[in-house]
Amino acid sequence: MFSMPVGTLLSMEDVLMKEQAVLESYFHSLACFAYDKAKETVERERDVAHKAHQTTWILNSMLTALSQFAAIEKNYTSLLFLVPKGFLRKDSSLKTIYETLRGEFRRLEERSTGGLTPSSSPSVTPTPSFYSPSPPTPVASPSSTAGSLVGTPVSSSTGSIHSNYLPGIVGHSAVGNSPQSGMDVLEKFVGHLCGQLFHFICARLSIMHFYEKMYTMSSNRFMKYKELIPGITEIVNRSQRLFHHPLLSPLKSAFGFECRSLLKLLEAQVQIQQLQFLPALLSLYDAHSHLGSWASTMIPKAESRRLSCVVISRPVSMPALYRWLFHLKSTLVAKFTLYFHDILSKQTTPLEMKNICFKTSTDLYQKLLSYHRRSDALFVALVFDTHGLENYKGPGYHHPNKLVEPPKGLDSYPTIVCYPAVI
Fold this sequence. Notes:
The chain has helices spanning 12-31, 35-51, 57-77, 94-113, 179-217, 229-239, 249-273, 277-298, 320-339, 341-345, 350-359, 364-375; strands at residues 304-307, 310-313, 380-383, 415-419. By secondary structure, it is mainly α. The chain folds into 2 domains: 6-219, no CATH class; 226-419, no CATH class. The strands form 2 sheets. A two-stranded antiparallel ribbon has the order 1-2. The chain has a two-stranded antiparallel ribbon with strand order 3-4. A hairpin with a 2-residue loop joins strand 1 (304-307) and strand 2 (310-313). Helix 1 (12-31) packs parallel to helix 7 (249-273). The longest helix has 39 residues, at 179-217. It is elongated and about 85 Å long. Residues 109-155 are annotated as: Disordered. InterPro entries: C12orf66-like_central_sf, KICS_2. This is KICSTOR complex protein C12orf66 homolog isoform X1.
């Protein structure tokens, strides 16, 4: 039960609309990398509702968990989990905090579905990384905030709650008739949302493990990118079926852009290594599109003002995770430009090709020319080994039905790029 002073009595529809706006703002801020704003949003709502006695134990616990969730999401996008750990230090890693918070969301889900109330539920010892406040003193009230976390408006004519935001809840079309019915709806909704967040944290832990695997592999002399593709593909496919709650759609979109961008970049790396011109080009284009969509839809519009027809915008600070993915894409574009330099040069003028190479993050072709001048070599060339490749047809675009005999002898080592072109 929860209390609401008579002087501040709100209709159920007003309460639902208010809490819907709070949660929508929270998850949108998370997706926009505005983690401090998201944390402040739920903490302010929790404190205001607690002072006005317009909250419940389970709602208080979820808002506290969401505050902690915003803080660790900020650390995640800063890539702090890849920082080396000190010897004999306390285990305060980001992964441990995620696992603790995952357990808290599971606990809230189980208690809500089990119909437990603060008075009948066993006491829980708070952990250092998470604290659940004690429930407020229950006071009888004629009103209810049963839909305080419902993510959709209530029909003004019937007062029913949209089924998309309360799946599996039937027979609560008149949730405001009694405090107990309102409590049931609230607990079921909180449990469902916490269950969705539980699956999201599971997906987050999976992608963190994948980044750690990449970090470990990078210490080797030769990194086997092809072995990474099945892992990230599985994460992408599995996450499409999970955390599908409408309120989590901004968070799911951001997670999808991140994983699909990484998948396409890894595919482009493997395809460039195998001199697959068209597949690599398409993978780079897809990665560029995903990163661009992520930036345009998940970053809040910069405040701007016009002075003499000139727009002056405040730059948006991108987190380290996005910058790393963007830098990886730029590096692969530079590598693609070098490997297929001869093919691309035939489509434009030498001056324009030089300008295109100059605009890449690293002008690898110019570095090759500089090395040729310093070494006083006759020529500098990159040679490709075709052994072990199936259906190799050479660099550039080839019709799918074109039959090409496998290279033999010295033809098995074609030249990728050569300066000056003496062979």
